[in-house]
Target: Proteasome-type protease
Amino acid sequence: MTYCLSIMTHEGLVMASDSRTNAGFDDLNVARKMHTFVQPGERVFVVLTSGSLSLSQSVMNLVRASFNAGEGLAQAQSMYEAAREVGQAVRQVSDMDRAALERDSYNFNVHLLLGGQVRGEEPRSFLIYPQGNPLSSTEDSPFLQLGEYKYGRPILDRGIVYNSTSLKVAAKYALLSFDATMRSNVTVGPPIELLMYQKDSFHLDNYRRFYGADAELSVIHALWERSLRHAVEDLPDIHMEPHPEAVSQTVLV
Amino acid sequence: MTYCLSIMTHEGLVMASDSRTNAGFDDLNVARKMHTFVQPGERVFVVLTSGSLSLSQSVMNLVRASFNAGEGLAQAQSMYEAAREVGQAVRQVSDMDRAALERDSYNFNVHLLLGGQVRGEEPRSFLIYPQGNPLSSTEDSPFLQLGEYKYGRPILDRGIVYNSTSLKVAAKYALLSFDATMRSNVTVGPPIELLMYQKDSFHLDNYRRFYGADAELSVIHALWERSLRHAVEDLPDIHMEPHPEAVSQTVLV
Model:
């Protein structure tokens, strides 16, 4: 499984991905799921991938080749066009592989998150489906997730507000969302790649790769668990009363 | 969908369930999923149900009828025997309904949580599968969940420790686990039934049904979100560095 996340705030984007892949329970590997494309001062794109690693590698090969040739993402005039370029690559891989996969009862399973900024526009992020169609983040739904998303969602639902969450705080929420997911699900695992993109910087200045034994991550994890426990204990005790059946005739005596 | 939870601590049990049922997105209803069986001073059982409401109603009808006749749960000599009694009822309903369901491509889907205490034993809880077999909670895995379990799991993983979590604090964790789940998933909804069973009390003295607009629940929700936000903001800022590609030759200039 996989967990990937993009958060859009008024200050920019936070993108994060885990690095665990598995083909069955006994075949775990490490693979980077974060791919970056930069024309300094002009455009920045970050793509996060989930689904079949074979398929996402093929998609990224196509996207990278056209970028390096000065086409595709290198020419997109907007984030929407960029999302369509990535979707087009998904459809090319679908044309190559879908029939062979489905003949053996595999799904054509590849989802991507694209975040970034093209000069002249605000930063934005998109989720690209296996059918190639894009879904945009919005101010009301500022984060997008891929893969094992449920464990790490409540903390984001409670904390992320497009207009008020700063980029530095959004990065902390992202890390806590990953920490919650990894704590509860072994198919999501380190290294975690975390990237903070400052609006209008057109440069990738704020990046971090956290390995499993990262000292800073351990400190944040420990501080967080301690804060949570204290916060729970500080809540008022819940007022309880006897169960209705404890005072009704349905009790056998 | 459904969310049900049992937490076992050294002081007793916390059991909780939501009340939302749905047959499709446009057919939402309210149904109690918590069922209690008490012989004061002798035995207490709480059953939480998930899956097809038709099936769980049939199971509970059988369990209730035998209890009222002084059999089944009324005679079980241990929590394990009680779990087997409930599993037996699941198998009876399977004999009645499984073939007809599967003929129309429905799964035989009913899961139950049984918690309680029989005099002479410690409190315990069990998950009973659609096949009728029981899984016990343990000191290392002190909580059991049914249904939409992922959203509300990280807070439990971080907080619940069999030997040290008090019953009152476990009840707060349970409520927060439900709050997280309802915040992120509309198929889990109020009223929430919450029950705290004090070891060796053999009585249901601590129960609460929270409706959607419950004032105490709103206060706890608001206090919790505020505490969480403060805790996130108080974490140290994450140390970031330039992305490797920002300083490598793969950047197009």
Observations:
- The domain at 3-235 of chain B is CATH 3.60.20.10 (Glutamine Phosphoribosylpyrophosphate, subunit 1, domain 1).
- Chain B has a mean pLDDT of 93.
- Chain B has one domain: 3-235.
- The radius of gyration of chain B is 21 Å.
